[in-house]
Amino acid sequence: MKTLMFACIHNAGRSQMAAAWFNALANPAEARAVSAGTAPGPRVHPEVLTDTLAREAQLLVTMGGGERCPVVAGLQRDDWPLEDPQGKPLARVREIRDEVKHRVQRLIEQCGWTLKPSEPS
Fold first, then answer.
1. What single-letter DSSP state applies at residue 67?
2. Is residue 117 one of the residues assigned to a domain?
3. Among the residues of the chain, which ranges form H helices?
4. What is the CATH number of the domain that holds 42?
5. Domain of 78, in residue numbers
6. Given pLDDT bands bounded at 50, 70 and 90, which one contains residue 24?
7. What residues pair up with 6 in beta bridges, in sequence order?
């Protein structure tokens, strides 16, 4: 099974959304996702992007943090330039959420991790 890590700065918005969408939409026998942050906030899921956590992953997807997001040796990395939803109006947060879902769906399809028709979502 593959493990993907979605990381943003605070692990309180984009990475949480991406991991939740991924785990809801991907075939759990093929892949799972975790979320992390480089400077985690005090709410939602405050994990730090540690070496131990990174070693468990095969792919690191950063959420628009640019140079503030880490490069982990030996770990494939993709950066999704997503706007931080913090402090944005609800309508904009929903747009960001929908973009995250679209990118997650595309990743799942590209890697062949879709649910089989008989599997519940």
1. G
2. no
3. 14-25, 51-55, 90-111
4. 3.40.50.2300
5. 2-111
6. very high
7. 35, 61
Q: State how far the Cα of 79 lies from the Cα of 61, in Å rounded to an integer.
A: 6
Assess if residue 72 is contained within a domain.
Answer: yes
The sheet that has 76-79: what strands, in order across it? 31-37, 2-8, 59-62, 76-79
Contacts of residue 19, defined as CB under 8 A and 6 or more positions apart, other chains included, come to 6, 33, 34, 35
What's the average model confidence in pLDDT over 7-32? 91
Domain membership of residue 107 (yes or no) is yes
Beta bridge partners of 4: 33, 59
Give the angle subtended at the CA of 79 by the CAs of 49 and 5, to the nearest 5°: 35
Cα separation, 102 vs 95, in Å, equals 11
Which of 39, 34, 51 lies closest to 9 in space, CA to CA?
39
Number of structural domains (the chain) is: 1
- The model carries a pTM of 0.82
